[in-house]
Amino acid sequence: MNDPDPIAARDIDNMKALNYFPLLMLLACSADPIPSGHYLITTGQETDTLTMAPAPESFTLSSVDSSTYKTTVISTGDKPIDSIDVGITGSKFFMVTGDDSDGVRRVQATSYAIEASQLAGYTVQLFLGRTDAFCRPPGDLSAGEGNHPPVGIFWGQLLWMAGSGTDNQMASEGYDLVAWNTAAPPSVLTTMTCPRLPCRFQSIANYAGEFGLGIGSDWAKYVDITAETVTDIDPPSGMSSWSEVSGGRSIDAATGASYVVGPTRSDSPSTLVVELATDGKMKPRLLSAPRQQAAAAYINTNSTQGLLVVGGSADGAGAEFLADSATAFVALPYPADPVVGAALLAEPTGSRVWRVGGKLSPTDPTPAPTVVYDLACQAGCTPEALPAYDLVVTNAYGFSFGSTTDATDSDGGVVIDDRRVVIGEQDDGTMVAWRISATAVTPVPIREPRKYSTVSSLPNGFAALIGGTLSDGTPATSLELLAY
């Protein structure tokens, strides 16, 4: 995803659509004046967020109006910001940033846009993380939900992790991205049962904040979190079984739609993508060739918007593209690309997309080279090699978080190229990550080495490692977050 909004990389719609305030218990009535609410900055489980070299030396507190997106710098200085007074009126995002002596952003926190009157009299913590190292926020999950747990987000703030049940009962855990702590999921999630074993979702997709689709091996559940209902759901017309996309990654679009991309799964090829459209309908989208462990990403630059699928097949076109306004994929004029397990990174402007990492094919474990696909190419196209950016990684995810307007955010700092991130696995499942700039590939350290984590982009400015197994064999119960 490549986000051109003024406060780049924040999922603005989800961060405004907080419909479930019982998570925070933000309800207060009194005849007496109530003092304004506050955010209290926390570094969670880390003690070196503000001292790790290179340490931040200058700090900025800004607000962004949730209606106009106008940015106002509230304060700057050389002292860390420890709290924020949100006032008594208005709905604003608040952002805390800290830059090093070279002007490179090293720490960052972004709040949700909550009506100030609802925060009146309350103090809510706001997590500050590093941009160059993963950090653990407050609170640990009770179980972690195993390797590669499927993950969804309801109301833009409740992170939902679904694990394997011991019988036909679905296991679930929650984390509140506003209160910054673990939270019991609503009972509609914790009492969910499966029609048959194994009782585990293979894929989860959310859309419109309050709706979710959980896909099992060959069955699916439709969740309305606000109405607190769960129903069995048949595949849409054009699909014979949910098994055609089960295990595929969920990818969100800037339009509000979500996609379950069958060709990204590892266990078998698929030709199908299910679009969860903004009109509430589920629409199958057929690719021209079966693909397995293909790279996929939603591309959102100043010239290109849509879902791109690359590689994963020795037959057919090397890439296929589903534009926002289209009802069918278009095969792009590139030769077949058998590379599996790669990530996609969009350049901040234009139509060029990098394929990074992966292996040459399902039977050839040789690391694949980094190449560029230009979506504007019309005929006889060949990917352009970028040997300086070759990475040894598989089951990779790419995040492209740059602004398309200039080289900095609206409040200064972070060059757009530094907002490209690749996260994935080594051959033994160990998680690895890098930042990709125009001049360098920089490894990003992980606090607790872990294997087989789920990777997700959160709406409040973090890439997340969720679940998996620690090096001692125990479940990974902490989240690890990288500010982007």
Describe this protein's structure.
Helices cover 3% and strands 39% of the residues. It is mainly β. The strands form eleven sheets. Strands 2, 3, 5, 6, 7 and 9 form a six-stranded antiparallel β-sheet that branches. It has a four-stranded antiparallel β-sheet with strand order 10-11-12-13, with no helix packed on it. Strands 14-15-16-17 form a four-stranded antiparallel β-sheet, with no helix packed on it. A hairpin with a 5-residue loop joins β33 and β34.
Shape: globular
In total, the number of strands is: 40
Strand fraction:
35-45%
Q: Which percent bin holds the helix content? A: under 10%
Query: Any idea of the CATH class of the domain at 12-130?
Result: Mainly Beta
Secondary-structure content class: mainly beta
Describe the largest sheet: 6 strands, antiparallel
Count of runs of 4 or more consecutive helical residues: 3
Termini gap? 12 Å
State the CATH architecture of the domain at 12-130. Sandwich
Tell me the CATH topology of the domain at 12-130.
Immunoglobulin-like
Oligomer classification:
single chain
Q: What value does the Rg take, in angstroms?
A: 22 Å
Summed over residues and divided by their number, the pLDDT gives a mean of 89
What are the low-pLDDT stretches, counting only 5+ consecutive residues below 50?
1-31, 403-417
Short description:
By secondary structure, this protein is mainly beta.
Q: What is the strand and helix layout of this fold?
A:
Layout: H1 12-16, E1 38-42, E2 58-65, E3 71-77, E4 83-85, E5 91-99, E6 105-110, E7 114-115, H2 116-119, E8 123-127, E9 129-130, E10 151-154, E11 158-163, E12 171-176, E13 181-182, H3 187-190, E14 203-207, E15 211-215, E16 220-224, E17 229-232, E18 249-252, E19 258-261, E20 270-276, E21 282-291, E22 295-300, E23 305-310, E24 319-323, E25 330-332, E26 343-346, E27 352-356, E28 359-361, E29 364-367, E30 371-374, E31 384-385, E32 394-400, E33 420-425, E34 431-436, E35 441-443, E36 450-451, E37 454-458, E38 462-466, E39 469-470, E40 480-483
Parallel strand pairs: 1-8
Antiparallel strand pairs: 1-4, 2-3, 2-5, 5-6, 5-7, 6-9, 10-11, 11-12, 12-13, 14-15, 15-16, 16-17, 18-19, 19-20, 20-21, 22-23, 23-24, 24-25, 26-27, 27-30, 28-29, 30-31, 32-33, 33-34, 34-35, 36-39, 37-38, 38-40
